[in-house]
Fold this sequence. Notes:
The structure holds two protein chains of two kinds. In chain A, helix 3 runs antiparallel to helix 4 (82-104). Chain A is globular. Chain A is mainly alpha-helical. Chain A has helices spanning 3-24, 27-52, 61-76, 82-104, 109-129, 131-134, 157-180, 182-192, 194-198, 204-230, 240-253, 260-278, 282-296, 300-307, and strands at residues 140-141, 148-149, 152-153, 232-233. By secondary structure, chain B is an alpha/beta fold. Helix content of chain B is 39%, strand content 27%. Chain B is built from nine helices and ten strands. In chain B, the strands form two sheets. In chain B, strands 6-7-8-3-9-10 form a six-stranded mixed β-sheet, sandwiched between helices. The mean pLDDT of chain B is 88. Chain A binds chain B through residues 182, 185-186, 188-189, 192-193, 195-204, and chain B through 50, 52, 71-73, 76-77, 82, 84, 88-93, 97, 100-102, 104-105, 109, 150, 154.
Amino acid sequence: MSELKKSWLLHLGIVALLLVLQFVLPSYHHASMARIMVLTCYAMGYNILFGYTGLLSLGHALFFAAGMYGLSLSMQHLEWLAGPALIIGLLSGVVVSLTIGLLLLRTTGVAFMIVTLMFSQAGYLTVLYFGEFTRGDEGLVIQQELRSIAGIDLSDPTSRYFAALLLMTICIIVSLRVVQAGFGRVLVAIRENDERTRMLGYDIQRHKLSAIVLSGTMSAAAGACYCLLFGYAGATFASVQYSIFPLLWVLLGGAGTVLGPFVGTLFMFYLIDLSSGLTTAYMLIAGFSLVMLTLFAPQGLVGEIRRRGLRWLP
Amino acid sequence: MNLLSTHNLSRKFGGITAVDNISFVIPTGQVRALIGPNGAGKTTFVSILSGRIAATEGQVFFDGIDVTKEPAHLRIRAGMAYTFQITSIYGRLSVFENVALAVRWQTSGDENETKRRVEDALAEVGISDRATQLAGDLSYGHQRLLEIAMGLCQRPKLLILDEPTQGLADSEINQFIRLISNLRGVMTILLIEHNIDVVMRSADAITVLNNGKVLAEGSPKEIHENAAVQAAYLGTS
């Protein structure tokens, strides 16, 4: 079997497994899994830029929030239906990432990190500043009856699970296609050695910009869907904490692997969930596990599996 | 017909003039060597030719077009290939993928064609059996050969080789000289080289740089007998 077939089978197999889980999971884990899947899409978007292109952003919450507020503000204040509002959420992601991307291309390395952080802080403060519309920290609650597309009530746990799975499947397919295409290979080449890549005839600025826009739009899609499925948009999602999360998830799961973001998000979610059941000092357990992982699996869980044998893992 | 020419090309770094008013011509099909003592401006000069750094003054013409303002990647796409003096490969990617990256923009998605071109280039430099290894695991000499393969496979009009034999064993150097003679007539070659033996055996013409200026230019025999060249080399070594 070719490596291409193997990787499609593996990834679609995971989707099938998640499909089966919808019928067997107890309700608490069922709801958690829907949340994990949406957050995975955020991490997958982050992974395109960090894992594959090698650009470390500390401000992805800006893109997540762009999607979230694109959707919620147009529903709340323009009284749009969920469908068109979702498209507005995606478009906000495209516009914000394209605009920020054009400015970001002037920086590299540490400056890139700092500028992304600054833009996302500016975004966070903007959300607070326009509290009249966004209701700041308190946040916007989307009424249950509005959260439906084409007659499907997305606040219902089953349809919410399927919607999250659909979004994650789309993100997996997009990531796989990108990684297998020439475009993705050039992104990896830029990560490994950008000057060499330029001297092989590639416009690296254009490739980086495309990666930023793709990454930002995926993150915005996750933000918009999160708001739609769970009915809430708050300033916390624009804060620096939400910029660090995808970095952690991707590092834990394996940067530059398609499944890494899912494994990382799942692991982190349950690590905190389980340890907080044991002790109030759950962050200590979480922190200790993270340190151990960085020591013994520096390439993340999926990265480690790839290193130890499955070299074809995309 | 000249493939490449420069007109009064200069590059200043602060108060230092690394390349000083060089007007230079390579006829199509020639193997031209560029030699000179350390710090003569050779690498700066070819970096300007390939667009890695900008010229302070003057112009570069490639294949009849003024490319002075063109970014590097467009010059590469117009038919220049550049190999780095300090080996610059993708250590964590396979040897095959290293070369594939160099041709993929020419084969526009046809992976069979990419594969064929990569295999040809690896065979040409003699490292076909290493295709699936990680490039970083190759010996230094093989990494140099990989670097050359990445330039060759683009089938450029002009191949710029910056000190390709540095660090190679004698047998590998002989293989390199054979490779150059096979490429004669297929592509124009600009070779920056320290090894005078390699230069004498492979170049059609030699340009000597010293202190950023052209000191002498001529056939290998003429350069060999040139008193000024000998003084420049003896004076700094």
